[in-house]
Input
Amino acid sequence: MERRGGSSVANFFVQGPLAAGAVVPLPEAAAQHARVRRLAAGHDVRLIDGAGGVALGTLAAVERREVTVAIAEVQSVAPPAPLTLLVPVADRERMLWLAEKAAELAVTGWRPVIYARSRSVSPRGEGAGFAAKVRARMVAALEQSGGAWLPGIHEERFLDDAIGACRGAVGVMLDPGGAPLPSLAPFGALAVAIGPEGGFEAAEREALDAAGWRRAALGRATLRFETAGVAAAAIVRAAQG
Output
């Protein structure tokens, strides 16, 4: 929520493209949200497409079947520096919580990893249906935070495949025995591997070491994977300004 000209500005996610002068319908979920909040025609709104497009406009009509927005101007927001999280396939609700925070912190890539210890988790977050839930949580978080870029969501993969997909980025493995993460700044394109509950197995650490990933610590305490993901992303984004 922002303020424009003294009035509150509601954020809504829409599929692009966005064009000045166009009148576009809100998706059903967003339209329902507008009706629940009792927004009326003429209310200032901000549309985001998750790919850097931001449109400012007003509600043109709020009707039972359709809510439309008249776009006044469109801006383009530069993408954030690449930041991919390799998140463990783990407890569903805890993964969804991390997904929300990842969107708020402008994480650019979400890569679920099937670790050896992922197999013992039930119910765990995996499959196309769960990926759709991840995206919905990220969209809601983007609307709430006013961000412009939606993280890229990838299918779950085994660790070797995930490492290969991150070539070109500096790889960091979260490990209590590593150097403090802030000491690795400045950060460019970065991929951060977050271990599962119980930590990485020896073979997984060896695979990351062999690929040249650096070990980094978030402190002395052992953190839950979702806490570690938020802490790492926050440190990186704060260092990047």
Observations:
- The two ends are 22 Å apart (CA to CA).
- The domain at 83-240 is CATH 3.40.1280.10 (Alpha/beta knot).
- The CA atoms of residues 81 and 188 lie 7 Å apart.
